[in-house]
Amino acid sequence: MYEIQALTEQKQHLINHIMVFENYPVEEQVEQLGEVRPSAFDITNVEVVEQTNYDLDLIVMPDETFRIMFRYNANVYDRSTIERMQGHVLHVIGQIVNNPHIRVNELELVTPEEQAQIVQVWGDTAAAYPQDQTLSSLFEQQVANMPEQVAVLCGEESLTYRELNERANRLARTLRAEGVEPDQPVGILLHRSLDMIVGIYAILKAGGAYVPIDPEYPADRIRFMLEDSGAKLVLTQSHLAEQASLSFDGRVLVLDREDIYHEDGSNLEPLAGPHHVAYVIYTSGSTGKPKGVMVEHHSVLNRILWMHDRYGLSVEDTILQKTAFTFDVSVWELFWWSMVGSKVSLLSVGGEKNPEDIVDTIARDGVSTMHFVPAMLHAFLDMWKQQPRDVMRAKLGTLRHVFASGEALPPQHVAGSSGSCRA
User: Fold this and answer.
1) What is the 3-state secondary structure (H, E, C) of 90-130?
2) What is the pLDDT of residue 299?
């Protein structure tokens, strides 16, 4: 084992425990030696101690009955942890004794007492949430409560709750006329913009499920996603219309053309319910072809309302929408604010790669809640360190919550944002 560790970059950190099976009862033989060769001294209570550099040693000693010993580094393990390990070992051995032919995958590690703790105590996490609602119905409730509240900021442009609702309703009527119905996927191929928000909310109001597609994807990937999802309709923008048409044989609607919007901006009679699909996001395809993951309305509500209960937004808060909408982190950026009367700020296209754009947007729009992948958080914090502290505090003074996920997070950068960093 020493040679194996020596050949690795981890060295002594590769293995931190060892199991030793003593194939000869040394202690018993030493005691018997005193009986065979009588002397003035009796040899009793012999104990052989072997020092190792591992934090945990599991030693099995043969005798008329097997003895199992645990030796451990008390700076690493506490006694209760070792006693729990002991219980697991005895529990497994008991199952083997009772059934010598039991398969390894049939052995249960946890004891009945632990299983009761896990299921009945730790697993008792049920909480009430509006599982009979949909993303669009909760949004419409906020529209009724605060129609003139700003909902979306995009540079110098903005939409109130009323304006977003009416525009999404007008587009949703067009989508229904095109045959969109519950669970039907609708492709949406465009960059971050007001059109993106309107398009997503319109698809949900029509009853369909949005399929986000990054215009930067290769044509073959775009074509595969549209064919695989079964989309019959794609929403896009005029500068991407040709690209969409080349990758798709179905109907293409250009969102920055006013003639596609119905004149009626009132709410539609809902067709989709909580157990209909809200969106289909495709995996990266790193292990083969991309796979579409279908997520229903009630599942999204469950997740986002848990976040709201844990971290809480107020009417004054602003979420920064900076994650590409082809990744699932974007989902709470796109909907959390609309359920609770807050607002969202859309970062400029490509701005997620530029810390200065992020800082400027936070300062301009009063962003309070945002997300980073750890690599970008690292770059963001490095830039922060290079700026005068009073300047950065002035620009980031509204920031309260920074969520980090998606990569291995360097330990030295777990905290350090203005406000609190939640991983």
Assistant:
1) HHHHHHHHHCCCCCHHHCCCCCHHHHHHHHHHHCCCCCCCC
2) 94
